[in-house]
Structure prediction request, 226 residues.
Amino acid sequence: MAEIVVALDLADADEALRLVDRLPGVRWVKLGPVLYVRSGPRLVTALKDRGLRVFLDLKWYDIPNTVAEAARAAADAGIDLATVHALGGARMIEAARAASREMRLAAVTVLTSFDPAEYWEALGGIGGGPIRGEVVRLTRMAVGAGAGAVVTSIEEVAEVREAVGPDLWVVVPGIRPRALAGDDQRRAGEPRPAIAAGATHLVVGRPIYQAKDPVQVYEELCEAVT
Ligand code: C5P
Prediction:
């Protein structure tokens, strides 16, 4: 069984709460930087008052002390899961972990917006080749430093799962609900193949909140992950 995490990439807090209040049995929501900057703390309180688990996706990357204090503030607010960039390094992640108490840290490895040439250029031309190995390398480093989850694309779930063993949370965005497994089309991006490869948390935004019937899409997704 995996969790569906509803990405609340909506214009404002009222819209986000209207959506959440329509979804039956919703357990996890994700807040990104846009909505968080607009109405963060108030919205977090409203979501926690509804008994929801909140994934704060601000992808922290800063000096260890600053990230640790951000993690402490998030844990104080009742955030359940928060992202840090693995490239911030082991010391940054260790400092954040030490301040996080019950909150779990999810490491982001290589942004999927990078192509390999652009990624290696950003790293000063050091390294090269496919990014896959880099995802696994950064995952191992982040987990060794205290990350309890990793965010990864559907393509790398199986390798990441193999690298980290059975207990880590593997969070996968970019999930699409159509042609839900059960039929014999097992395209990448659908819930069941992602879970089979080792995903524990599936992040879904637009397919839910842009749907004519968000409730129906959400229920289909829940059915696919149980
Ligand atoms: O709307 P959609 O389902 O594509 O939203 C996915 C969510 O996951 C968005 O909040 C986006 O910021 C995040 N995401 C991510 N990494 C990706 C793709 C999407 O964190 N590679």
